[in-house]
Amino acid sequence: MKGAALDALGILPGDVVIIDHNLKPKAGDVVVATITDYQTGNAETVMRVFQPPFIVAHSIRLGPLRPEHVDEDRVQILGTSIGTLRARR
Asked: What is the pTM of this model?
């Protein structure tokens, strides 16, 4: 995890999130998704919570972020989290 988009769920920057690319997400699951900006041609890979039909961030540090509608074109879910690892500090 690089960012703080899920810090309110206890998933912090530096954590390793284990993803199953074959598991279909249910409401409330943490997912990895791509968001494509067709104007620039850039795609961003993000970690979010699936709240059908949207993916949303849960962050105390970043505050409210815009939910993204999962349309399987511009926003696609690539996999579902099955666990998280954190190094001892």
From this structure: 0.92
